Give the backbone structure.
Amino acid sequence: MPNLSEDPSFPFYVASRLFSQVYRAPLEELGLTYPQYLVMLVLWEKDGQMVSQIGQKLQLDSGTLTPLLKRLEAINLIKRVRSEVDERRVEIELTYPGKSLQNKAEGINEKVEGIFNNWEDKEFETLKSLMDRLISEF
């Protein structure tokens, strides 16, 4: 008979939910959901990426990513630009408000990293390494 304490994914579910709670308040101030914030992080790293590149980095399919991009476009943080060379290619570019939002978002990671204040660097690196390994299994 299945047992919650034996379910291998339950701790990941709980941790994910708790992280979402930590991000909720600071992201509400920016008017973003966590998935929207991830898209913005990708674009703040490198503006003008194709939809497929963003999806690959976030490991999201176009059915999940497209609605996120539409909402970000509706609130004027990004714009879609069709390639003049190949109309099938769509690049996502930050608008001025989208670029400006980066400064307001700078303290968010520090708030989340505060969870790990009592961790040794090696523990945090081990956790990150194990999570990367788990993700690579999918």
In short: The longest strand covers residues 78-82. DSSP finds seven helices and three strands in the chain.
